[in-house]
Amino acid sequence: MTRTPEPMIWPFPMPASPTLIRAYDNLYLAANGTDAQKRALGNPAQLPRPWDPGSITNPQLRYETWQWLEDVVTWFNHELVWNLGAGYIPACWPRHSHLVHEIAVLADQRRQASTHLTSDKLEEWHRYTWVPQLCCGQMTRIWGLVRGYACWASDVACH
Fold this sequence. Notes:
6 helices, globular, mainly alpha
């Protein structure tokens, strides 16, 4: 009997939707493209930055970014949280702007680490981004995320 191997871990959810990929491609070209490519993009300060959701005005890009962040939160809680008392990202994270800002940066930094050909950037992400959040209590102190988390919002969506 042959068994189909199951994945050891869930892979990080890289951006996969067309508008989000285009946004990242445009940012890459703004930084590394030819002069003609840079001119075609216009003012780089006007480009949407997925790590800064407030910079996104295109409704489709907002939707795709939101879906990607949801995938990242699911991945993060499944793959990286081993002590719920130390902190996890609650399901009501979209209701809290401080969490949206932090999660967008966390997701983008992890995305960037995945694009490198060596493990250096991934090791830096582990050391500087998520390990302090979970191990040093920053998630609890800054994000207010703990087991039995009581959301301040009275909306049912937070409970």
